[in-house]
Structure to design on (155 residues):
């Protein structure tokens, strides 16, 4: 009964849309392609997931990464020009003079702080000295100890 207002004529909307659509499409494709180039750095190496390390070990991981240790000990600490650090902690190491030593915390500290004192294996290269402080060495050792227990991977 009551007459409401007459519907407004809708014809006004029509002209606006058609020229806007074409320009935005190409840019989105480029972004998708570039996103696929990731480098696996979410893992700390040695099968340890990022974020699973203790604070000390995480500091040690960063120190070791920034100190060039991977050049010889492997990008994922699997070894290379120097011995693997994965599984090193707690293992028995044969020194150059034929004696053996268990790679406990003290040994690891010594072999990083004083690389020339106890030389292991038959590596042709010598481990160079470094400038790490005692605290930094302790952190790196915590990291090496974490590498001895890789989550879910054998070795
Ligand atoms: C130029 C190559 C090189 C670099 C760089 C290097 N190392 Fe070494 N590292 C070696 C070699 C070779 C050995 C084995 C001979 C020896 O015991 O000195 C070794 C031994 C070790 C050992 C004892 C391993 C064992 O089996 O007894 C530890 C731990 C270690 N390195 C940690 C580190 C850390 C941490 C860094 C970085 C601050 C580092 N290395 C940098 C070459 C290197």
């Amino acid at each position: 009964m009551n007459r409401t207002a007459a519907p407004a004529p809708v014809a006004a909307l029509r002209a606006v849309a058609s020229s806007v659509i074409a320009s935005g499409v190409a840019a989105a494709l480029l972004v998708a392609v570039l996103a696929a180039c990731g480098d696996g750095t979410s893992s700390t190496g040695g099968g340890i997931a990022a974020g699973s390390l203790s604070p000390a070990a995480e500091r040690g991981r960063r120190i070791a990464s920034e100190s060039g240790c991977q050049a010889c000990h492997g990008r994922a600490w699997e070894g290379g020009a120097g011995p693997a650090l994965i599984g090193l902690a707690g293992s028995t190491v044969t020194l150059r003079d034929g004696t053996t030593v268990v790679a406990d915390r003290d040994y690891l500290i010594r072999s990083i702080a004083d690389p020339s004192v106890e030389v292991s294996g038959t590596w042709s290269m010598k481990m160079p000295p470094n400038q790490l402080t005692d605290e930094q060495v302790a952190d790196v050792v915590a990291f090496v100890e974490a590498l001895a227990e890789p989550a879910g991977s054998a070795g």
